[in-house]
Design goal:
The chain has 406 residues and is of the alpha/beta class. It has a domain of 201 residues: Rossmann fold (3-Layer(aba) Sandwich), CATH 3.40.50.1100. The chain is built from twelve helices and 13 strands. The protein is globular.
C-alpha cells in the first residue's frame, strides 16, 4: 500500500493540472493550487476507517491523504491529535448543550499552525527546497521557523511590528532570519514577494504553495473521527487567510468520496472581527471574492488579514454548505475569552474566543438550533496572547493581612 495517494496539483479556478513532483506555487492564472489524490484507488485499498486502528494518534495517521510521498521525508515535532472537548457550562449558558471546542493550543509551538508547517516543511524538504520565505501575523512564523530548523532549512520571515511579542521571540529562538515591518501582513507579503524574486527563495506564503492546506485539513479529519465518522451540524472557524476552513471542507469532500462519511454536510461559519471583516462583507453581498479591508485592526491579531488570497475558496465553502460569515466586536471577543476561562478552565486565544462569541450570537438569532452539535475551533493557546488579559489581581497584601470574604 502506498504511503501517500497524491496524484497531482490542480487549479480550482481554471482547472489547470500540474505535476506533483515539481516545485509548484500559484497557477499561471494567479489562483492557489490544491493537492489531488487518487481517491478511487484509495477507496479500494482502504475500504473503511478501521484501517486506522492501532496507528499512532498523531497527524500522520492520515498519511494516505497527505502529500508527503515518503515516510523518510516526514518532519515532526510530535503533532498529536488534539482533543474535542465538551463545554457543558458555557453551552448551557448560551443554550447550546452540544457545544464542543477543538483545542489546537496543545500542538507544538502552541497553535494549529503546526499542522500546516509540519506538512508544508516536510513536502518542501522532499522536493529539495533549501530556503523558505514568508510573511506572518505571528503563529505561522513561529511554527514554520521551528519546523524549518528541525528540517535543516533556512527561513526568512517578515512580521508586523505590532504582532504579539511571543511569536517574534519564538522565531528568533529557532534561528529564523526575522524582519519587522511597520504595517500589516499584506505589507509583509509584498516585501517577501520582492525578496523571493531577487534571491530565488521559495515563497511559503499562505496558499502560495499547495501543501500547508493539507496539514490544516487534518483538523477536519480529526473532528470527524472523534465523532465516530459523523459530522457536526455546525463548525465555526476564525477566518483570516481561511486556510483551515478550506482544508476542513476539503477533508469532508475527500472522506465522502472514499466512502468514510455519508452525504450530510456541516454548515461552515467564517468568523471574523468587526475591525477586519472582508469575507463577511463579501458573503453578505453574495460575491465570489472579497475586497481589501482598509485600516484593519483587531485584538484577534491572527485574523487581521485585510485580503485573503483564497477568499473565493472560503466563500465557495460557505455557499456550498449553507453556512455563513459573521463578525464579532473586540469587546465580545475579550468577554468570551474570560467567560470560557471562568466556566471551563480553558485559556484560549482571542481567535478561538471569537468563534464562541459567534456561536452565542447565532444561537440568539436562531441560526443555530438548541439541539445541534456545534464545534468551535480554538486555533491556539491563550498563553501566546498575554496582552489580551484585561483583569487585574487584587491589591498586594502585607504578610499579616487577611483575605476578605467575597
Amino acid at each position: 500500500m502506498k504511503y501517500s495517494y497524491l496524484s497531482h496539483v490542480e487549479c480550482p479556478r481554471c482547472g489547470a493540472v500540474y505535476a506533483a513532483n515539481d516545485v509548484q506555487t500559484l497557477c499561471t492564472c494567479g489562483a492557489p493550487l490544491l493537492a489531488v489524490y487518487d481517491l478511487e484507488r484509495l477507496r479500494r485499498d482502504l475500504p473503511g476507517p478501521g484501517a486506522l486502528a492501532g496507528r499512532p494518534t498523531n497527524l500522520w495517521r492520515y498519511h494516505e491523504l497527505l502529500p508527503v510521498r515518503s515516510q523518510d521525508a516526514v518532519v515532526s515535532l510530535g503533532e498529536s491529535v488534539t482533543p474535542l472537548l465538551a463545554l457543558p457550562r458555557l453551552g448551557a449558558a448560551i443554550d447550546i448543550p452540544g457545544l464542543l471546542i477543538k483545542d489546537e493550543g496543545l500542538l507544538p509551538t502552541g497553535s494549529f499552525k503546526a499542522r500546516g508547517a509540519a506538512v508544508g516543511v516536510s513536502r518542501a524538504k522532499e522536493l529539495g527546497i533549501r530556503e523558505l520565505a514568508m510573511p506572518t501575523n505571528g503563529n505561522a512564523g513561529s511554527a514554520w521557523a521551528a519546523y524549518a530548523a528541525r528540517a535543516g532549512l533556512g527561513i526568512h520571515i517578515v512580521l508586523p511590528s505590532t504582532a504579539p511579542a511571543l511569536p517574534r521571540n519564538e522565531c528568533l529562538m529557532t534561528g529564523a532570519d526575522l524582519y519587522l515591518v511597520d504595517g500589516l501582513i499584506s505589507d509583509a507579503g509584498r516585501i517577501v514577494g520582492r525578496a523571493v524574486a531577487r534571491h530565488g527563495w521559495f515563497d511559503a506564503s499562505t496558499l502560495k504553495e499547495p501543501y500547508r492546506i493539507e496539514g490544516k485539513k487534518t483538523m477536519g479529519l480529526e473532528i470527524f473521527e472523534a465523532l465516530g465518522w459523523r459530522v457536526p451540524d455546525v463548525i465555526l472557524y476564525p477566518t483570516g487567510g481561511g486556510v483551515g476552513l478550506i482544508g476542513i471542507y476539503k477533508a469532508l469532500r475527500e472522506l465522502q468520496q472514499i466512502g468514510w462519511l455519508g452525504g450530510k454536510t456541516p454548515r461552515l461559519v467564517a468568523v471574523q472581527a468587526s475591525g477586519c471583516a472582508p469575507i463577511v462583507r463579501a458573503f453578505e453581498e453574495r460575491r465570489e471574492e472579497s475586497s481589501f479591508w482598509p485600516d484593519s485592526a483587531t485584538v484577534a491579531f491572527g485574523i487581521n488579514v485585510p485580503k485573503a488570497l483564497g477568499d473565493f475558496l472560503v466563500l465557495r465553502a460557505l455557499y456550498e454548505t449553507d453556512g455563513c460569515a459573521l463578525a464579532v466586536d473586540d469587546d465580545e471577543i475579550l468577554s468570551e475569552l474570560e467567560g470560557v476561562g471562568r466556566m471551563e478552565g480553558l485559556y484560549v486565544c482571542p481567535e478561538g474566543a471569537a468563534t464562541l462569541a459567534a456561536a452565542r450570537k447565532l444561537r440568539r438569532d436562531g441560526w443555530i438550533a438548541p439541539g445541534e452539535t456545534v464545534v468551535a475551533i480554538n486555533t491556539g493557546s491563550g498563553v501566546k496572547y498575554v496582552e489580551a488579559v484585561r483583569r487585574e489581581p487584587r491589591a498586594i497584601l502585607d504578610k499579616e493581612a487577611e483575605i476578605p470574604a467575597p
